[in-house]
């Protein structure tokens, strides 16, 4: 590999490399970032600081099923059980799950806390 070093005041200031080498370095840097992200997330999952969900749960939400219902069922809760934890009525929860009603930020935050999921996972419900 040919590298041209440009100096200023006797100190190396710039390194000029062929463009194809530059592209390889960019690819390698992006790969390293991906590996570091993977390692960080895996460590968080292994330590219990982060939770992973099955593909079935993820696809259910991505396919348009109501996120509150999906995560409630994933946690093994009934509507009655979740409503009691959150402090709302079962009909109100049913309306949230059915998309007939939008919950306030406070209610959706309490639902997220009860389901032990990030509030962002319930966005739009």
Short description:
The protein is mainly alpha-helical. It has six helices and two strands.
Q: Which short descriptors sum up this protein?
A:
2 strands, 434 Repressor (Amino-terminal Domain), single chain, mainly alpha, 6 helices, 2 domains, two-stranded antiparallel ribbon, 125 residues
Helices and strands in order:
Layout: E1 4-8, E2 11-16, H1 19-47, H2 55-62, H3 67-74, H4 79-86, H5 90-98, H6 105-115
Antiparallel strand pairs: 1-2
Helix pairs in contact: 4-5, 4-6
How many structural units, i.e. domains?
2
State the fourth-level CATH superfamily of the largest domain: lambda repressor-like DNA-binding domains
Low-confidence region ranges: none
Mean pLDDT: 94
Give the strand tally: 2
Given helix and strand content, the structural type is mainly alpha
Count of helix runs: 6
Strand content: 5-15%
CATH topology of the largest domain: 434 Repressor (Amino-terminal Domain)
Spatial strand order of the main sheet: 1-2
Shape: elongated
């Amino acid at each position: 590999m040919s590298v041209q070093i440009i100096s200023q005041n006797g100190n190396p200031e710039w390194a000029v490399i062929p463009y194809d080498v530059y592209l390889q370095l960019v690819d390698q840097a992006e790969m390293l970032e991906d590996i570091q992200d993977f390692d960080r997330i895996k460590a968080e999952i292994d330590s219990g600081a982060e939770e992973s969900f099955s593909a079935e749960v993820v696809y259910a939400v991505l396919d348009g099923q109501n996120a509150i219902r999906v995560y409630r069922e994933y946690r093994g809760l009934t509507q009655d059980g979740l409503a009691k934890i959150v402090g709302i009525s079962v009909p109100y929860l049913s309306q949230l799950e059915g998309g007939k009603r939008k919950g306030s930020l406070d209610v959706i935050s309490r639902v997220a806390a009860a389901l032990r999921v990030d509030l962002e996972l319930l966005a739009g419900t």
